[in-house]
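User: DNA starvation/stationary phase protection protein. Structure?
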Amino acid sequence: METVANSVQLPPLENPNERAAVGAELQAALQDLVDLSLIGKQLHWSVVGAAAHGVHLFLDELVEEWRELADVVAERAVTLGFIPDGQSATVASGSRVDPVQVRSLLDHVVVWELGRRVAAVAERIRARLVPVGAADLVTQEVLTRVVGTLEKQQWLLRVQLGEKA
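Assistant: Predicted structure:
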């Protein structure tokens, strides 16, 4: 017998057998976004140099955006019936974001290091767009929004380094 808690109440997917795979892709994106926000905070506390104040404030903005994106990704997973795990142990074991050294870093080094990590996360999520879209266009749209935000952030980080847009 069908109940409110079963799959009848879940949004339909192009291929319902891929629900777990879509959930796993959302989980991977969530782990990278949560880890990126933690690394952003670490760099926020570590930045030194002439532009440290501006970079410090910019990092707060980026961290907030990554936390909002993580929430959107996690909520999409829940909508599909997949329970995401954003706990520290899960993020630490599953994230593919490179850790940073725990020491003071010059402002331009912080911007460069962060730009490299944002680019890597954007590339990994971009690689998920086609396979996820084959199963669920709405989830693809969520991940497209994430990639768009990350790529805009890459541009803003490049500008701070004096690179051409």
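The two ends are 58 Å apart (CA to CA). Confidence is low (pLDDT under 50) at residues 1-5.
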